[in-house]
Fold this protein.
Amino acid sequence: MNPLRTMSAPAGRAADAVDPGRILDDLQGIVRIPSITGAEEAVSERLAELLEEIPGMRVERLAPDPELARQDPDWPGEEMPRTGLPIVVGRLGRAGGRRLLLVGHSDVVPLGDSANWSVDPWAAELRDGLVYGRGTCDMKGGVAAILGAVRAVAASGAADALSGEVVVAFVPSEEDGGQGMLAAIRAGISGDLAVITEPSNLDVVVAHAGALVFRLTVPGRAAHASQRREGISALDKLWVLARALEADETRRNAAETDPLMTALGLPYPTIIGIVHGGDWASTVIDRVVADGRYGVRLGQSPRDAEAELRACIAAACAEDPFLRDHPATVELVGGTFGSARVPSDHPLPVGLARVVEAVTGRRPELLGEPYGADMRLLVHQGGTPTVIFGPGDVRVAHSADEHVPIAEVEACARVLAAWVVDELI
């Protein structure tokens, strides 16, 4: 039996109106525009142009001042320099009724070592059903799905019958904190329900953890290499703190009881990702600076997570003879991601899951995830129930040879088109 028969006729027509060829063109086109966090202007302009091609779509280009955004009491931080926050908003349907948001971010992370890529990261090559390139999975595949969905709603004729409006928001700066999403919220971009098309393998994410980016400055005592016992290596002391963070990670994860998070195995990981230290090969290192990530537990505020991090480092310093008198310092740098949750029985995940099953024939799982996302800003600052639903596997996000299955992008677009019509007609 065709699963679309379990849906309303307008919703089925909207899903059927998705154009796979156009979705591939859109995805390849926007992947070929590099948009590393802090430099999203070119891809944002292209996204605005693509929205303007859709009949009935009303498009706005917002350009909030980053300096003013930094003064917001809920400002989530940043890791990359920027001079602008280019936000693109498209509206389809009738203002004044219910409002559904479809949200994606336009920025991507840097390439890493290009030697690890087997393909050109900006070529958007299609190979064996997968589109390769930086940002294909995280999350230009989801952005292309949104474009395909709203184009299908218009092409099916459903847009004129909508009792409310669907609002598309393409925002910058998600990767380094989410100040683009917060600025969009402050500009009035909120609604009754929202879907963010981050990669979820077409399952529905109803909860996510958060993360803090921290910096440890670890002291030592310099000495000539030939007399190294006279010195104290800051690198050795960093190792002391790293072991303490590992034990803290074990304790925090073992204390979790929520099935959505315990199913992940390690819902709140801690890592040290950047280490700098030393200025001479024959000198004992007297200072190491290390940046890392610390998980924010579900339901925990970033402030409380910060307190746990500081307590862990303080306790480790107190137990070490050198660090007791020369403690390491802790500061927060970069993005601050809180956690968020929508109840699994909320009408949003229940209704979206029903449409996913009707369109694809597969019942999606309702999941928790260990990463931070713009979802928490829409939930907490925007007052908008939000879930994550999109194409691709987060395990290949940020990696060399990042890719997304084009069939999942198309399926996501069909689901979103049907869901919008199902909710607003």
